[in-house]
Design brief:
This protein is an all-alpha fold. The protein has helices at residues 2-14, 17-29, 32-40, 58-92, 95-99, 105-139, 145-173, 176-208, 216-227, 232-235, 250-273; strands spanning 44-47, 50-53. The protein has a domain at 2-39 and 52-175 and 253-273. Helices cover 77% and strands 3% of the residues. Strands 1-2 form a two-stranded antiparallel ribbon. α2 (17-29) runs parallel beside α6, α3 packs antiparallel against α4 and α4 packs parallel to α7. The longest helix is centred in the first third of the chain and has 35 residues, at 58-92. It is globular and about 65 Å long. 34% of the residues are buried.
């Protein structure tokens, strides 16, 4: 029964025109970095007074594509689909049709979550594959595919947490526009706050040369540096945070785990108590 429910939810999600539109956009977007690199490849860039020849591999194309994908584009798509899957069905009263069947509420909720993960996976595999083919076609070299694929895998975990977070908000707000606008505005504010903390951290070496080591402003900057990896924006993009040993920063990974678990608990509790009209 559970397998049938999951299959039905996945088919329902991917039959929506907006889902296919999002995937087409992601596929076309993945062609952009290869085109941009082809325009500048063979040129030169000055670094410390030395001219360096610009050259790229498929690895670079895939890395640029991942950055472009994660720069609000895919997250906005995911927010929209998560809101439509829960808050939208609640408002349209189609959710009630599922709940009157002999299916537990937990099964109804998490089958939708699994459907969202199918979209997340498709939204990663498609840009990965398109950028790989485009990168090889344009540059003729693969590069280190293992390193960039690791970042794609890390993004999958981050998107899993983000979709759970949005799902919880959608159930609390019960409105598609409210979920989309509210989550997106929160996401932007969190990014801005993260940039503010990054600025304080970047200024720390300069300030330390101007004031005493025990000055409160130095302590404030140390706090900013310690706090920034725990922000949700850093957790949802933890693949970008690499320590000196080349691994991911554990604080951001721990923050992602906490956000995901808390969001899952909130979503489950809210859905169990939801009064569906």
């Amino acid at each position: 029964m559970t397998t049938l429910i999951i299959g039905a939810e996945i088919r329902k999600l991917f039959r929506r025109p907006i889902t296919m539109f999002f995937l087409v956009v992601l596929g076309l977007m993945a062609l952009g970095p290869a085109g941009m690199q082809a325009l500048v490849s063979g040129g030169s860039m000055e670094t410390n007074g030395n001219a360096e020849l610009l050259s790229f591999t498929a690895q670079d194309t895939m890395a640029w594509t991942l950055t472009l994908r994660n720069f609000l584009v895919f997250r906005l798509f995911l927010i929209t689909l998560a809101a439509m899957t829960l808050a939208g069905e609640f408002r349209n009263r189609t959710l009630r049709e599922d709940l009157v069947r002999p299916v537990s509420r937990d099964a109804a909720l998490w089958s939708r979550w699994i459907a969202l993960q199918a979209f997340v996976l498709a939204g990663l595999v498609l840009p990965w594959l398109v950028s790989l083919v485009a990168g090889v076609a344009v540059h003729g070299e693969l590069g280190d595919l293992g390193a960039v694929t690791r970042n794609y895998a890390a993004t999958w975990l981050a998107d899993m947490g983000f979709s759970t977070f949005v799902m919880a908000i959608s159930l609390l707000v019960k409105s598609v526009p409210g979920t989309v606008v509210g989550t997106f505005m929160y996401w932007l504010l969190d990014l801005v706050f993260g940039l503010f903390l990054w600025g304080l951290e970047a200024l720390k070496p300069l300030v330390e040369t101007q004031v005493a080591a025990d000055d409160p402003i130095v302590g404030l900057m140390q706090t900013a540096a310690a706090l920034r990896p725990w922000l949700p924006s850093q957790a949802f993009n933890f693949y970008q945070n690499v320590n000196d040993a080349g691994g991911f920063v554990w604080q951001s990974m721990a923050s992602l785990a906490v956000i995901t678990v808390l969001s899952a608990l909130v979503a489950t509790t809210t859905f169990r108590r939801l009064d569906v009209p």
